[in-house]
Amino acid sequence: MTTLENDYIKVSLAAKGAELQRLFSKETKLEYLWNGDDQYWGKHSPVLFPIVGALKNDSYTYKDETYHLPRHGFARDQVFKSEKISDTEAVFTLTETEESLKVYPFHFELKLKYQLKDRKLILTYEVINTGKDELLFSLGAHPAFAVPNTPKTDYTDYYLAFNADDNLTYWKLDKGLIAKDTGSIKLDGHKLNLKHDLFYNDALVFKTMQSNCISLLNTKNDYGLHFHFDDFPFFGIWAATDAPFICLEPWCGVADEVDHNQELAHKEGIVQLPAGRNWERFWEVECF
Question: CA within 20 to 30 Å of 143's CA: 114, 128, 217, 236, which one?
Fold first, then answer.
């Protein structure tokens, strides 16, 4: 386990999946990250790569060959090479292996860089195409935040505040795939009140959300967090059934549609990265 800390926050990071394990504020004395209880969901903040969501029949076609990948890809279950740069920065790196090439025939380097800056944790994703062909991939974040995380509060005391949306259109999921049907949520003053039944039919998938900052707040006290992200065209919000957490998930890519032709190059949101080029995205969270 790698630990980073400054005067304000302390985080723990695992080499498996390069996954954030803990986000603790020294000022509030509160844990902000979900604890990974297997009763509901055993992860904390997995990286989704080289796909986001599910493939139709768990398979895709590339250059007339068929390959199989599980939901959200394989990176979250792989051990990354880790390097602690300083007390406040660490980098985790994953590259292709003989096994990964059997299910994903691309050469790549995936880097996750964690940085602490005052009260903020910043996670930067970098993908480098180390092969000779165009690299096709999707990438997404999946951090889960504890709800509730303060004494004498309940799940329904919490809400999400969006900085640029009054209404949200979401795409429904059909056995993990993007359905044709959509739903609409009218926000009350940019606020979405949390309740468990929001997620009884799986995640809420957004393709047209305008906000680039979502705050997790509650009606009982002034503690919370700001979650900021840029240049992610899709977003998911999810919690396991009746679980005490909320996942805020910026994505570059989504699950296959129910009638998708399964060609990887035709997958919605797929990134097409030329040989020798790199690609970056980031999100940051500020706890208070």
Answer: 128
Three-state DSSP state, 92: strand
- For residue 233, report the phi and psi dihedrals to the nearest 5 degrees: -75, -15
Q: Determine contact, residues 233/259, Cβ cutoff 8 Å.
A: no
Q: Which residues contact 222 (CB under 8 A, 6 or more apart)?
A: 288
In whole angstroms, what is the distance from residue 5 CA to residue 11 CA?
Answer: 6
Question: Can you tell me the distance from the alpha carbon of 267 to that of 259, in angstroms, rounded to the nearest whole number?
Answer: 11
Q: Long-range contacts made by residues 265-269, C-beta under 8 angstroms, separation at least 24?
A: 265/62, 265/136, 267/51, 267/60, 267/136, 267/138, 268/178, 269/52, 269/138, 269/233, 269/234
List per-block mean pLDDT (blocks of 10 residues) for the chain, which spans 288 residues. Answer: 98 98 98 97 98 98 97 98 98 98 98 98 98 98 98 97 97 96 96 98 97 98 98 98 98 98 97 98 98
Position 24: which residue type? F
**Predicted pLDDT at 198:** 97
Q: Residue 189, Cβ neighbours under 10 Å: how many?
A: 8
Residue recorded with tokens 């809420």: 204
3-state SS class at 103:
helix
Q: What is the DSSP string of 52-87?
A: SSPPGGGEEEETTEEEE--TTBSGGGSBPEEEEEET
Token look-up 């860089």 returns 113
